[in-house]
Amino acid sequence: MGSQSWKMTQRMVSLLALLIMGVTGAVGAQEKVTIGLVEDVVLMPWKIRLPARIDTGAAVSSLDARGLKVIDQEVEFVLPSKYGGQKIRLPIADWHTVRSAEAKERRPIIEIELCIGPKLIRARVNLNDRTRMKYPFLLGRNVLMENFVVDCDRTYCAPPKCLEETSK
């Protein structure tokens, strides 16, 4: 193989490598979805849609759970009537201690599938009576990291798309 052929082969290999790295970088960049300060979230498999406040200051996500009862290794609760009042019973995955200015509180954590924008995510969520809160769901860093970028100037910019895909 001549010097010219060898140089041409090296250039082609370099160009191919750059193209592959560029495509891989673009795919990686697309994995994070931009969401606003408030987004609709769907609790799967019940297909219950409710608004969530995005909170980068909260370590763990939190769901409004009324009438919370711990039964052995499971937890039973009811969603707010405004969102269907569905009674749900799930295994307790863990416990989370939340500290506030007033006290420490121990909350059960469940694992649940969430649809946020185009993403279907299995997440750990603590259960808490959020009656006095404006939003029934608080999305914390445990769900946001590696999945989303938050645009503080926007709201409702990533409607759930998982429902469309499951109905096809």
List keywords for this structure.
alpha+beta; elongated; 6-stranded mixed β-barrel; 3-stranded antiparallel beta sheet; 168 residues; Cathepsin D, subunit A, domain 1; 2 domains; 22% helix
Describe the structure.
The chain starts with a helix and ends with a helix. The chain contains three helices and twelve strands, in the order αβββββββββββαβα. The chain is of the alpha+beta class.
Summarize the structure.
This protein has helices spanning 3-30, 141-144, 162-166; strands at residues 33-35, 38-44, 48-54, 61-64, 66-71, 74-78, 87-91, 94-99, 104-116, 119-128, 137-139, 148-150. It has 168 residues and is α+β, with helices and mostly antiparallel strands. It folds into two domains: 1-30; 34-166, Acid Proteases (Cathepsin D, subunit A, domain 1, Beta Barrel).
